[in-house]
């Protein structure tokens, strides 16, 4: 039982490059979330998916897109990376929504 | 500004002492949760307290919630060096998402 897994663990991009962060959970949770964590800022919600087939914007959605591929997988895409997107990205899942959230280990992204 | 704000921002104590962290929030909530984050790791859920509850315990953790003051506190008793981490409160404003505070960094010295 792996919980929430994220790939990759580390990534370095150049400005303008694109990439997709992958997240998968094996707890059969309906809700999944993408956060970014910057020093001194806590976690900020980028996008979330309350259930399979739905996605909604969070606090900081600009520059990102998401896909809820199926119940297990929720991906985050940066179409044209910018230095301001340098951050640590966490995926989480929960059921019911806004109840206990289970976090992945994070992806540390640097955009040069 | 953040919905939930922790106080203090940083706390240093000796092993065996108690650590108290506070969280204030601005609007009515469904529940409030506390999470721990060890350096470089993901967040781990500690405890959830619902808006109709006033106090909850889990091992060495005690959480209180005062909805009239819109505040919560997390007490860790008999702290250990392994408790060194950042602690975050998160509030559930609506039924589908959480808002996290900026965290308290706790350092427990052996």
**SS elements, strand count of chain B:** 11
* Number of extended strands of chain A: 11
Low-pLDDT residue spans of chain B: none
Largest interface, with counts of residues having CB < 8 Å to the other chain, equals: A-B, 28 and 25 residues
Task: Report on the biggest sheet of chain A.
Answer: 7 strands, mixed
The number of helical elements of chain A comes to: 0
Strand content of chain A: over 45%
Can you give the helix content of chain B as a percent range?
under 10%
In terms of quaternary structure, the protein is heterodimer
Structural class of chain A: mainly beta
Q: Mind summarizing the main beta sheet of chain B?
A: 6 strands, mixed
Question: Uncertain segments of chain A of ≥5 residues (pLDDT<50)?
Answer: none
Give the rounded overall mean pLDDT of chain A.
94
Distance between the termini of chain B: 36 Å
Structure write-up:
Chain A has 112 residues and is mostly beta strands. Chain A contains no helices and eleven strands. In chain A, the strands form two sheets. In chain A, strands 2, 4, 5, 6, 9, 10 and 11 form a seven-stranded mixed beta sheet that branches. Chain A is globular and about 35 Å long. The N and C termini of chain A lie far apart (36 Å). The model of chain A has no long low-confidence stretch (mean pLDDT 94). Chain B has 110 residues and is an all-beta fold. In chain B, strands 2, 4, 5, 9, 10 and 11 form a six-stranded mixed beta sheet that branches. At the A-B interface, strand 4, strand 5 and strand 10 of A face strand 4, strand 5, strand 9 and strand 10 of B.
């Amino acid at each position: 039982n792996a919980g929430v897994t994220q790939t990759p663990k580390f990534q370095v991009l150049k400005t303008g490059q694109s990439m997709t962060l992958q997240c998968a959970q094996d707890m059969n949770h309906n809700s999944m979330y993408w956060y970014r964590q910057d020093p001194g800022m806590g976690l900020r919600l980028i996008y979330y998916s309350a259930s399979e087939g739905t996605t909604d914007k969070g606090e900081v959605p600009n520059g990102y897109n998401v896909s809820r591929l199926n119940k297990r997988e929720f991906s985050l895409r940066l179409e044209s990376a910018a230095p301001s997107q340098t951050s640590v990205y966490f995926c989480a899942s929960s059921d019911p929504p806004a109840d206990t959230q289970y976090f992945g280990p994070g992806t540390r992204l640097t955009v040069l | 500004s953040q919905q939930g704000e922790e106080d203090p921002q940083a706390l240093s104590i000796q092993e065996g002492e108690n650590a108290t962290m506070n969280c204030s929030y601005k609007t009515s909530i469904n529940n409030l949760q506390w999470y721990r984050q060890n350096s470089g790791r993901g967040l781990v859920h500690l405890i959830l307290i619902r808006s109709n509850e006033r106090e909850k315990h889990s091992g060495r953790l005690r959480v209180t919630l005062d909805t009239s003051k819109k505040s919560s506190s997390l007490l860790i008793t008999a702290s250990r060096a392994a408790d060194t981490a950042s602690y975050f409160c998160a509030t559930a404003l609506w039924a589908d998402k959480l808002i996290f505070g900026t965290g308290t960094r706790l350092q427990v010295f052996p």
